[in-house]
Amino acid sequence: MSNSTESILLNPGERLDYFLGGALKMIQSQDYFSSSVDAVLLAHFMTIPRRSDFRLLDFCSGNGIIPLLVSYRTQAPIEGIEIQAELVAMAQRNAQINQREHQITFRHGDLKEFTVENHHRFDAISCNPPYFVVGKTEALHQNPSVAMARHEVTVTVEDWVKQAGQLLKYKGRLYIVHRPERLDDLFDTLLRYHFSVHRIQFIHPKPDRNANGVLMEAIYHGGRNGVRVEPPVVVHQANGEYTEAMLEIYRHG
User: pTM score > 0.90 for this model?
Assistant: First the structure.
């Protein structure tokens, strides 16, 4: 697609960012929460087959980064749900400029009210949710859109875990990126709603830093078969540049 066509799709304050070695173009805006390393790592962490009879749903879809990244390695239909209408419109334009509108459907709405049609449950759900509890730790961002993306203003851990259980098939997979300090809440809530944690991978900002992110794969009615802790992801070298592993993820997903 030509640069002139891409420019037509951009609104004031928006920019184009590139992923997958330039193959994936993403419209992002200074007025809304932009896609982060966490979303890129979650898409990489997910195990999604190539076949077209697999169904994936993305909670808290934002501008569509996770469905778009995953779409480059599967033929499966993907749906995303996002509560902010402006971000849904941006996600739809992102699907359009990447010629993925036939594969990905973005819906505007509250994930707590999302229902499956004709009992067609999903094989997997991904979720990059708000991390912070309102009234604790970090103050709410002055930009309401960013505040909703970072804090549990409209949806809590219990909300999206409970809803995932309503929408997933038996033995369906839930893929999560979150903060390590919320692991007690995550484990407690997942177990109460019949999920078992299958895999965990910690994210470290630098080699000598504590983890500031965690990737999780949980299975609905998966049984207690133990948790596999995978080697950590280190995002930056000591000098602040991306590690080779991180660059490889940005290039190839």
Answer: yes
